Amino acid sequence: MTDTTQTRQDPHVWLRRKSRWSVTEIAFWVIAGTVPFLFFPTYLTLASQIAIAALFALSVDLVLGYAGIITLGHAMFFGIGSYAAGLITKTGWGEPLTGLLFACAVTAFVGFLTSFIIIRVRHLALLMITMGLGLLTVELANSMSWLTGGHDGLQGVDVWPIFNRFEFDLWGYTAYAYAFIALLIGVAISRRIVHSSFGLALTGVRENITRMPAIGSEYRGHLQTIYVISATMAGLAGALLAQTTETASLDTLSFQRSADVVVMLIIGGTGRLYGGIIGAIVFMIARDQLSGVNPQYWYFWIGLLLVIVVLVMPKGILGGLARLMGRRN
Amino acid sequence: MADDIVLRTEGLSKKFGSLEVTRDVTIELPRGARHALIGPNGAGKTTLINLITGQLTPDTGRIVLGSEDVTRLPVAARVRRGLTRTFQINTLFPDLTPIESLTLAICERKKEAGQFWRALTAHREAIDEADQILQQLQLGDVATRQTRHLAYGQQRLLEIALALATRPKVLLLDEPAAGVPKSESAALFEVIASLPTDISVLFIEHDMNLVFTFATHIHVLVQGAVLLSGPPEKIAHDPQVREVYLGSKHHG
Amino acid sequence: MIAQFAVVLFDGFAFGMLLFVLSVGLSVTLGLMNFTNLAHCAFGMVGGYATVIAMNWLGIPFLLGLPIAFLAAAAISVVLERTIFRLLYGGTELSQVLLTIGIVFMASASAAYLFGTAQQPIQIPSWLRGSYEIAGQNFGIYRMFLSIVAIAIAGLLIFGLEHTRFGARVRAAVDNQRIAQGLGINVDAVFAVTFALGCGLAGLGGALAIEIVGLDPSFGFHYLIYVLIVVAVGGLGSIAGSFVAAALLGIADVAGKYFVPELGSFLIYFLLVAILFVRPNGIFGRR
Q: Which of B102, B116, B233, C193 could staple A198 via S-S, CB 3.0–4.6 A?
C-alpha cells in the first residue's frame, strides 16, 4: 500500500506527537481521580487495591512487554517491598513516604543483584530462573519467620499519617488518594522511559535481539537497567500495600501473585503502558464481583479466559481496540 | 608495502564437527576498497562474514582491524571500532519506523542510548543525522512508516542505512540485492555507488551484474577456501572459476 | 548411619525415577518442537485419575491400570495438540506459556469439581506392598518396582531413538526441522506421535505417583516445578540428561527434607538458579 498523497512529515514533529499525552489519557486520569470519590465511596478500598495492582502490573510490563523478559516470579519484589515497608515501622519509624523510599532502596538492591543472573539466560532457562528466584524467596521468608511472622504474616505494622495530617481512615479515602498518586507518578516515569532512546533500545531488544549487537549496542546493560527499575516499581507497589493494609504476608511473594499479574497484563495487552492498568481493573473487579464463587472454580474461568485471549485476542483489550481503530494506540 | 590495509584476516579456519566450513582464509581489504566475495552456494561466504564480525569464533586465525587484533572481541565491540555488516535476510525492527531505528543506532553509537530520563525528542542531532541518512538512501519519504509496511526493496535499503548509522570504516554487505525485484534494484545500485569513498566495502553477491559494475577486486570462495583473488577481468576469464559456476550467467 | 544414608539414597532415587517418567516427555517435545507446554503435568494428573477410575470404579487391576493411564493421557493430548496447541507452534513463548497455564487451571478446577479435593487412594496389589529389610532399614518394594519401570522406559526410549527408523526421524527433526522436511520426513506426523508419547508417559508417571506422593487436583501445578527443573537442568531433548537430572533432583529433595527440614525446598530452588546460571543450557544441553 503506497501512500503517495501523504506529504513528508518532519520527523521531529512526528516523534513529538507520538509521545504527547493524548486527550483520552488525560480524561482517563481525571475520571480515575475523581469518580471513585464521588460515586463509589464504599469501594475506595477496592479502588486502592486496583491502583496498587495496576502499578505492579505496569512494573511487569516494563520488563515483559517492552524488554521481552518473561517473568513468573516478579512477586518476589512486590513482597520484598511489602515486608521492607512493614519492617521499618517495627523499628518505631512509621513515616510513610520515607518508608516507601526505604522499600524502594531495598528492592532496587535485590533487583540489582538478581539482574546479573537474569541477563545471562534466555527462553526456558530464564523462565525457570525467575520462577526459581520467586519460589526461593517464599521459602526464605517462610523459614525466617522470626523476621517475617511466617504464615501469620507481619503483625503490628503501624504507619503514621501522611504529612502528619492524612490518617489512613477505615473508608479508604487516604489510601486511594495515596495509591492513585503513586500510580500516576509511576505511569509518568514509565512514559518518559518508554519515549526515550532507552525505550527504543528495549523495543530493539524485544523485536530483534540479533540486530542489537550489530548496531553496537551493549544491550545487556540496558536489560539490567530496566530490570532494576521494574523491580523498584514492584517494590513500591508492595510497600503501598503494606502501608494501606497495615500488614505484610507470604502471599505477596507467592507464585499465585506472579501469575495473576501476568494474567492482568495479557488481558489488557502488553507493551502499551496502559494494558496493565486496564487488566488490573478488569481482573480485580471481576474477582470482587465473583468472590462468592468457590476459589477453585474461579480459576477455571481464569484458565478459560487465558486460553481464549491467547487464541483470539493475543494483544489483549488494548490491542483489540487498536486494531479496531486501525492504528496503534 | 601495500597501501593502507584496514581489514585483514589471517589463516581463518572453522570446523563444525568434521565439516570444514572455512579453510585457512586470508583476505586483505585496503582503504576505500570495493571488493566482492563470490562463490557457489554453501561455499561459506556468510560463515566468513560471521567470523569476521564476531558472531562465530574461529578455530584458528586472526582478524586485524586497522592495527588492532579484534579476534577475541564481541560483536558490539567490533562495531564500535568501525566494523559493521548487513544481513542477507532482513534483520530489522518490524514495529519501529526507519527514523526510530536509525536514531536508535546513532544514539547507541554516541553512547546516549541508556539515558532513560531524557525524552527521545531531545536528541535533536541524532534525529537530524538519522533523517539525513534516510534521505541519502531514498527512504526520506517513508521515514515515519513502520518497517513492516515498507516494500521489500526499501527494507533492503534500510538494512544498509542501519549499518551506515554506525559510521563504519569497514562495511560488509551480505547479498544486498537478495530477493530485490529488478524494478527496485536501480535504487540499490545508486546507493552502493554513492557510498563514501573512504569506507572499505566487501560485499557478497550472486548478482554478477552488481559484482562487475562495482567491484574493483574479487575473491572467489569455494568449499570454504579462497580459490582465486584478483581484478574482475582476471576472474571473469579464469577457467577454474567458470567450471565452478557451470556457466557464466548467475541469477541471485 | 550408612544404612540411613542408603535408604535416603534409595528413596530419593526412586522419587527421581518417578520424576524421570513424568519429565522425559516434556524434555523431548521441548527439544523437538520448542513448544513450552506447562500443561505437561496436567496430563500426568489425567493419567492418575484414569487409573483411579479404572481401579476403583471398574475393578481393573493395577498393572492394567498403568497402560490405561498412558493411553488416556496420550489420547487427550492428541486432541489438544491437533486442535489448539499446533496453532501456537511458531508463536511467542509467552503465548505458549499462558495458553498451557490456562489449560492447567481448567484441568485442575475440573478435577476438583469431578472428584473433590481430597487425595485419591488406590490399593496396589499385595505383591508390591511392603518392604525388604536390610541392615535394619526398610527398602520399599513399590519403589523398587517404580525404579525398574523407569529404567526400562529409559532403555526403551534410548534404544528407540538410536535404533529405529522413527527414532532417526525424530533425531533428524530435532537437529534441523527444515532440512528434515526437505528430506521427505513428515515432521508434522513426527511431532504428533512424539507429543502423544511424551504426554502418555506423563500420564503413566501420574498413575505411578499415586502410591508415592498421592493424587489430588493440585498435582498439575505442584509437580510442574519439579518437572521443569528436571528438563531445564537435564537439557532439552536429552533422555540421558533427564535421567541424571531427575535422579539428582529426587535424591536432593528427599535428602534435603530428611536432613535439613527447616530449609524446606529452598535448597532445590537455590540449586536450580545456581546450575542454570553456570550452565544455561542445562548439564547435558547443547542448544
A: B116
Is it the case that residue C208 has pLDDT exceeding 60?
A: yes
User: Which residue in B has a C-alpha nearest to residue A196's C-alpha?
Assistant: B120
CA–CA distances in Å: residue A43 to residues A198, A282, A287, A292: 38, 15, 14, 17
Identify the bridge partners of residue B201 per DSSP, sorted by sequence position: B34, B171
Report yes or no: B98 and B150 within 8 Å, Cβ to Cβ: yes
Confidence band of B251 (pLDDT split at 50, 70, 90): very low
pLDDT above 90 (res C104): yes
Between positions 118 and 147 of B, the ones with CB within 8 A of A are 118-121, 123-124, 126-127, 130-131, 140-141, 143-145
**CB-based contact (8 Å) between A11 and chain B?**
yes
Q: Which segments of chain A have a pLDDT < 70? A: 1-7, 293, 295-296, 326-329
The answer to whether the Cα torsion of C228, C232, C235, C240 is positive or negative is: negative
| Residue A165 within a domain | yes
Do C264 and A145 touch, CB atoms closer than 8 A?
A: no
Give the one of C107, C231, C277 whose C-beta lies nearest to A120's C-beta.
C277
At B155, the pLDDT band (50, 70, 90 cuts) reads: very high
Q: Does A292 touch chain B (CB under 8 A)?
A: no
Residue with cell 477505615: A170
Residue C108 region, left (φ>0) first, then alpha (ψ -120 to 50), else beta? Answer: alpha
* Contact residues on chain A for B114, CB-CB shorter than 8 A: 197-198, 201, 221-222, 225
Determine the Cα–Cα distance for residues C172 and C174; give it in Å rounded to an integer.
Answer: 5
**Which residue among B76, B114, B115 sits closest to A213, beta carbon to beta carbon?**
B76
B104/A201 touch (CB, cutoff 8 Å), yes or no = yes
Domain residue spans of chain B: 1-82+168-252, 92-166
Domain over C7-121+142-278 is classified CATH 1.10.3470: yes
CATH superfamily for domain B1-82+168-252: P-loop containing nucleotide triphosphate hydrolases (3.40.50.300)
Residue C198 zone, left/alpha/beta (φ > 0; ψ -120 to 50; rest): alpha
Pairing assessment for the beta strands B83-85 and B170-174 based on DSSP bridges: parallel
Task: Classify the complex by whether its ipTM is higher than 0.95, answering yes or no.
Answer: no
Pairing of strands B170-174, B200-204: parallel
Q: Cα A159 to the chain's mean position, in Å? A: 23
pLDDT digits (tens, 9 = 90+) for C11-70: 999 999 999 999 999 998 888 778 889 999 999 999 999 999 998 888 888 888 899 999
Which residue of A64, A125, A139 is in closest CB contact with C266?
A139
pLDDT at position A329: 40
Helical (H) or strand (E) element with C21 = helix C2-33
Minimum-distance CB partner of C273 among A122, A132, A314: A132
Give the Cβ contact number of residue C261 at 10 Å: 8
